[in-house]
Design a protein that fits this description.
CATH superfamily of the largest domain: NAD(P)-binding Rossmann-like Domain
Shape: elongated
Bound molecules: uridine-5'-diphosphate-glucuronic acid
Number of strands: 14
Helix content: 40-55%
Radius of gyration: 24 Å
Number of helices: 19
Structural class: alpha/beta
Number of domains: 2
Strand content: 5-15%
Distance between the termini: 66 Å
CATH topology of the largest domain: Rossmann fold
Strand order of the largest sheet: 3-2-1-4-5-6
Length: about 450
Amino acid sequence: MRCTVFGTGYLGATHAAGMAELGHEVVGVDIDPDKIAKLSGGEVPFYEPALREMLQRNISAGRLRFTTDYAEAAESADVHFLGVGTPQKKGEYAADLRHVYNVVDTLVPLLRRPAVVVGKSTVPVGTAADLGERAAALAPAGIRVEVAWNPEFLREGLAVQDTLHPDRIVLGVQRDSQLAEAALRELYAPILANGVPFLLTDLQTAELVKVSANAFLATKISFINAISEVCEAVDADVTLLADALGYDARIGRRFLNAGLGFGGGCLPKDIRAFMARAGELGANHALTFLREVDSINMRRRSRMVELTTGACGGSLLGANIAVLGAAFKPESDDVRDSPALNVAGLLQLNGATVNVYDPKAMENSRSVFPTLNYSTSAIEACDRADAALVLTEWAEFVDLDPETLAGTVRAKVVVDGRNCLDASRWRQAGWRVYALGRPIGEPTAA
Ligand code: UGA
């Protein structure tokens, strides 16, 4: 089959390459000529494991190409996916939908055959129905244009795997839909053949599934972080507690890692947009708990600064701090709303000299926080450090050898912001180990 994907960011580029991998002929479309030039040359403009290989394989096979030309894209397929960004509006909680509307407004008048516009972006409930009416009004006379919603659940860092092997496929269709279900079942046939559940819903349910999923995940993380605050008050250990909770299959251990909390381009803005939308719908009481989820999460960042201040003897003035990790999570170069980078900035504001190292997110970090110092390796960042902070759990940091690092730092103090280090190993190498939600680990050797 043939399809297009509008928007070539984390979501759109992965989806375009994924659709081609399934054997379809795909055109990726973006208004940014630089992105299109890179992608056409087989280069991914961000870091995502295995995506480059999948992209290049499908470009070479002649199944995947990229363009900025909407008319060419409109001509080339009958299913048009929409994967543009829906960031938080400046100064308010609501989502900025201008990119979504721009695609529909530009694409639909160019359609010459019946078509389905399939939204994948995360949008406030009601957007798809509104876009459906708009598409019907903008479509050339006699051309049927349907809007459907097929939310995307992929995680950055695992985007390729999640695209080809999703947990489920959700498709919301218009009440009078004739084209969408058949078209999507055919497009996703290789995935459905593996037994992946396909849920057909109305538009508003499909939109709500996505934001509810992210709200649940955010709540799970903030739940364990709230318990972590109580653990800190009584010197209990939140990681042992989470392990014990996790054995209950109704609770589960996944997404129960206490630490610096959630960030990135999705969870924080999605729970805020969800609250804003519920308010518009007169259901704001239903989601006031998400405000608490958000504030527990943001408190983690200031708590990390307090913990580091304590670890440095009560003041950050003149302290030399190594920050290991800047991306919002490992296997990503994304620093949007990154807790790690946020903490690095706060430490500097409090008078510390901050040396940041991240395996992939250096360039993005520099453009957001140009005044921090950036090192070329973990060891270099730790040079004469008064404290080494692990703020993103890259395998490279989890595997650091505390014996080797001991010869580099000024004080053997490590602060584990993600509860990812083997504390006993560090203590045995003479380090004092600080962590969120756990008692201070005193060195067991000199
Ligand atoms: C999230 C969802 O997991 C995806 O299902 C969804 O498709 C995506 O948002 C989206 O809406 O596009 P992502 O933002 O890539 O995916 O990252 P997650 O793996 O969900 O992690 C989010 C944040 O939570 C990270 O900062 C991570 O460090 C933090 N986290 C995660 C914790 O603090 N504790 C945990 O136990 C798990």
